[in-house]
Amino acid sequence: MEFTGISGNFSHASAEALAVVVFDGENAGSGSLAELDKLTGGGISAVFKSEDFKGEKGQTALLRFSPSGKVKARAIMLLGAGKRANYRVSDVSAASGAATRYLRTRSFKSFAFMPRCEGNAIAIAQAAAQGAVTSQFELDKYKTKDKKNKSVNKVIVCIDGAKPADLKNGLSRGQIIGDSMNFTRDLANEPPNVLTPTEMANRAQRMAKEVGLKYEVLDESKMTKMGMGSLLSVSKGSEQPAKLIVLRYTPAKNTGKKGDLLALVGKGITFDTGGISLKPGEGMDAMKYDMSGGATVIGTMRAIAMLKPTIPVLGVVAAVENMPDGKASRPSDVVTAMNGKTIEILNTDAEGRLILADAVAYAEKQGANRIVDMATLTGAVIIALGDQNTGIMGNDDELVKEIISLGKENGEGFWELPLGEGYSKQIKSDIADIKNIGPRGKAGTIMGAVFIQEFVDKAKWAHLDIAGTAWCDTVKPHQAKGPTGVAIRTLVSLVEKSQ
Ligand code: BES
Ligand code: MN
Ligand code: ZN
User: Fold this and answer.
1) pTM to 2 decimals?
2) Which residues lie with the beta carbon below 6 Å from any ligand 1 atom?
3) What is the pLDDT of residues 210-226, one digit of tens each?
4) What number does the ligand 1 atom closest to the CA of 347 have?
5) What domains are defined for the chain?
6) How far apart are CA 251 and CA 9, in angstroms?
């Protein structure tokens, strides 16, 4: 997609359609709407009068007209955005995405977009571009016919009075972040026979080469030498060898505090059958997206490499397949993790925490003093929060609060659940240091988090349970159903805020 920015003359923009945000209760008599009303010979007033369109959030209307004079567009799209007072930069990406999807299905290849948002022009332009890019992602990669081929390939973003340099910067940032989200979504959507741990490592490597990240992969023999008995207990049951994917971003000039290192750690279970604690067959297909946390790390590292913040970032992905087999772990097996702790495996379906235990300990051993891990870890978080909020837990209040607040800025919901001694006690094992599950039906999401916490030593740490938010079962005006690329925008902000 190609993006350009303009800071005035919206109606003369060189595009097939003009898409403009309209607020609840507005009339066609004021400002930019009045100009468009004139252009369409009172068309906008007529739409308002018809009462089909009131500017309510999600409402849309399309007016077609014959272009004349300096006007090149042949249609105006009105995008309802609800009450003006509630309209934020974070709403711009959904508005731009909704316009893109609406117009492309009606065969428009280009449009000019006026978000009408107050605030930082860079952030607004970024949200507009990101929303347009992510809106065009589709699940049809493996279809040989009936593909959704129609696409918008040019968007002109109009922000009144914005500096050209800010527009350009914001649009390029938005494109990078949007493309990185789509990169993650493509990985999450890949079938598990294609995206094995080895293939996940190969894709990460190819990306790393393209954007200039340092890349390393630890194979099973290396992991054995490092004592990663917890992670390796999960891959034992699979024909596919586990891979620990390590991506390193080093800034040209480090403006952070000396010795600081932020690590992003992801669960990359390329397919989760549950292992010997086998999952029921119905719905098991969904478990191809159990590598979404890992895919999020890879996509975020891609964005970081291209945006070039001035602090170093480490990305660690544990890529493993969880299968039942003669060699698979049994419930009641005891294994030893890299940090020396012994684990009684009571349920082989609680495998995400087993691989994250070693991945998180590895990140800290590499020097990380701040760690954010992300994982489709528990079904319980879906019951608690649905698809609206990612569950967040951690050992550092400041880090957790910062992620929640940056999430709000980016239109991504995070909701904190508590940790504490009382919960940690519930994973004490009778025969080993800890066990990998807590009491049945009790605080399942927290049990996952307190388990991972056992493998964090001194680092500040936050855990994101994205099981409910990494995949969306319904199509939205601005987004196809399927993988969402959740948390990437917020994590990019976290990195940039730490510069
Ligand atoms: N990958 C699943 C969690 C999951 C479930 C993600 C549904 C998305 C949708 C995870 O490995 C798992 O199986 N968790 C178990 C833990 C239990 C055995 C303690 C769960 O949530 O049931
Ligand atoms: Mn599982
Ligand atoms: Zn899993």
Assistant:
1) 0.98
2) 272, 290, 347, 349-352, 376-380, 437, 444, 467
3) 999 999 999 999 999 99
4) 18
5) 2-139+151-181 (3.40.220.10), 192-497 (3.40.630.10)
6) 39
For 323-354, the pLDDT digits (tens) are 999 999 999 999 999 999 999 999 999 999 99
In angstroms, the CA 449 to CA 465 distance is: 9
Mark out the alpha helices in 193-347 (DSSP H runs): 197-211, 220-225, 229-235, 292-307
Closest ligand to residue 267's CA: 3
- Report the residue count for the chain: 499
Ligand 1 closest atom vs CA 274: 13
Distances (CA, A) of 223 to 146, 151, 153, 237, 355: 44, 45, 45, 16, 11
Which residues, in sequence order, are CB contacts of 23 under 8 Å at separation 6+?
A: 55, 80, 81, 82, 83, 84, 87, 116
Closest residue CA from atom 3 of ligand 1 = 378
Contact between 477 and 98 under an 8 Å Cβ cutoff? The reply is yes
Question: Do 80 and 464 contact (CB within 8 A), yes or no?
Answer: no
* Ligand 1 atom index nearest CA of 290: 1
Q: What is the pLDDT of residues 57-90, one digit of tens each?
A: 999 999 999 888 899 999 999 999 999 999 999 9
Ligand nearest to the CA of 387: 1
Residue pair 77/103 in contact (Cβ under 8 Å)? The answer is yes
Which residues are designated catalytic? 279, 353
Helix (H, G, I), strand (E, B) or coil at 482: strand
Confidence of residue 31 (pLDDT cuts 50, 70, 90): confident
